[in-house]
Amino acid sequence: MSIIVPMATNNPLNAYKETQIKTASQGKLIIMLYDGALRQVDAGIEALDREHPSYDEVSAALVKAQDVITELMVSLDFERGGEIAKGLFNLYMFFNRQLIESNIRKDSAPLHHVRQMLAELRSAWVEIVARGEPSPDDRGRGSVNIAG
To answer: Considering the domain boundaries, does residue 147 fall inside one?
Structure first.
């Protein structure tokens, strides 16, 4: 899985974030991606549900959420992940369609549904990482893999 990390200038916060990403396990990287997607979906919901919605903010947040979900999609390993990877891919496709639909219609209802499902997937990954268990397709390798 490749995550683009901006060059840390002289900003200590950027240097800290870069170090966190570079030293995180695959499982923790997946959780970080879910966290990012959830943050962006939350920002989209908040911007849409205001008395005077900011459609530029909505669009920016939802496009960022799509980017994160796309990163989750391209990091799937269909060879080792089998049916689980295929199921996750279809779910991620659904999420992106819902985000697009929400952005076009300026309706937060689909976002609430996507947010709930992202939160459930994140919780599952937190549990997997906490137990130190390999993902279902990665048994015997000794590490968590985003194969599905």
So the answer is: no
